[in-house]
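Before surveying the methods themselves, it helps to consider a single example record, giving the amino acid sequence and backbone structure tokens:
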Amino acid sequence: MERKKQLLETAVHGIFLVLGLVTVGCVLLITAYLVASGIPAIRRIGLLPFLLGDRWESTAAQPSYGILPFILTSVYGTAGAILFGVPVGFFAAVYLAKMAPAKVKAVAGSAVSLLAGIPSVVYGLVGMLVLVPGIRRLFHVPDGASLLAAIIVLAIMILPSIIKVSITALEAVPQEYEDASLALGATPTETWFRVSVPAARSGIAAAVVLGVGRAIGEAMAVMMVSGNAANMPALFESVRFLTTAVASEMSYSSGLQRQALFSIALVLFLFIMLINAALNFFLKRDKEGS
């Protein structure tokens, strides 16, 4: 009997090891493919002209392949979505996890799950039919398809990821932590924000990473509300993100243009890895400091 348990344990460990290696292998395979597909265009165009060039005219007689507008637009769009979405999602998660009555929590949880399940094209369609005309009328601009519209849509789209994961992290905090804080005379609000939230910090950070990943990687909804024009980023101007640059031209691209699109995908991949690495660095530093 004991030997059977050991064999079962070994088999389970082996299965998890294989699944973990498959995951790592998939990431390495994607990385190798993007590097192999993206480097040739960067060599032909030049690294600095590619990254710092402010003109993208891939179909012109004398094509230009500068992606600085796409990089800045992605940075500004993601930062704006985080600025609006993270505080709303964080406070909503604290309310639902610690303050909300059971009925309100059930209804709100169902609504958040529904938001998470809505396809991105539906967000884009609603944004195109409601948000874009609203921005045009409210701010008296020629076209409401702009960076502002993309920021608002992305902020709404990242809310489900931030709220659901943050709630899970907050509910995983041992009740003894809160009981000890209350016993020392802290108010419930002080306990939630000074005890529960710091204890759930890693989970909340993971929620933000998931939200940032969705904001950076979104293409269809952004393409429908941003105007998809290769301009330098401005709040009320039509813009193009890194993701939409790849999605909008890949179907008819060839030659150097196609290679340049793979180079954009490589830049986007490295951008996401850099954000994850920076966040992990700060989390580890905070843990070591505490």
Remarks:
- The first strand starts at residue 56 and ends at 57.
- The chain has a mean pLDDT of 89.
